[in-house]
Specification:
single chain; about 220 residues; alpha/beta; Alpha/beta knot; OB fold (Dihydrolipoamide Acetyltransferase, E2P); 2 domains; 5-stranded antiparallel β-sheet; 4 helices; about 20% strand; globular
């Protein structure tokens, strides 16, 4: 078991999920729950990227489920304190309340500025920008001011520093974060064969219900 902040993997893992994963489930509530269990499992194993690919026929049902899985997984990947600002009201998220929490380092529970640690990193949403600075919502009781003009609505990573009982923030790139920072979700208009053929992976592992037992 890892501590509260599991380290980032030295080699990133990408998992491809077929859009038909939820196609045979009639009710949105059960679809949501199944997607939630998948997202939770992938976060536990520190998967960094999820691809939702088209499979079977390319009909409306597959397209709908592909979009649904992507939207719900993106919702799960977003810290709770940013979800209302990032996501508009959507029928696909009707049962989002039953989704299991990821409990990844980018989903902190602290809500008070006084409780943050020096060097702590949080995801934040740009609320307002000025000529040289921006105000960012990082889920605390006060907005954080950072240097740099960023477009409102942009989600950034902010590192916090305590100086003389004051907290200042600094925007940092993802590659500076050394702990597991959740997963990204992509919904390409490609089949699995097209993804494997177009993407560069060092190792590819495929699973099938028709596969042979290895152990």
């Amino acid at each position: 078991m890892f501590p509260l902040n599991p380290p980032k993997r030295k080699t990133s893992i990408v998992v491809a999920i077929p859009a038909s994963t939820t196609a045979d489930i009639p009710h949105l509530r059960e679809k949501t729950l199944k997607i939630g269990f998948i997202g939770r499992a992938l976060a536990i194993f520190r998967v960094e990227e999820i691809l939702i690919y088209e499979d079977k026929d390319k009909g409306e049902n597959i397209k709908y489920n592909q979009k649904l899985i992507g939207e719900i997984l993106n919702y799960m990947a977003t810290p709770q304190y940013l979800r209302k600002s990032v996501f508009k009201i959507s029928p696909n998220l009707r049962y989002a309340g039953i989704l299991p929490p990821l409990r990844t380092p980018n989903h902190p529970l602290k809500k008070s500025l006084s409780s943050v640690l020096n060097g702590e990193i949080r995801k934040g949403l740009v609320v307002k920008s000025f000529r040289e600075d921006s105000l960012i919502d990082i889920g605390l009781d006060k907005l954080i001011q950072v240097r740099g003009k960023f477009k409102p609505g942009t989600v950034l990573n902010v590192k916090l520093f305590k100086v003389d009982d004051k907290v200042r923030g600094e925007v940092i790139p993802p590659d500076e974060i050394q702990v597991y920072w959740g997963f990204k979700v992509k919904v390409p208009s490609k089949t699995l064969d097209e993804i494997i053929g177009s993407e560069k992976f060092d190792l590819k592992i495929a699973t099938s219900r028709y596969g042979e037992q290895l152990s």
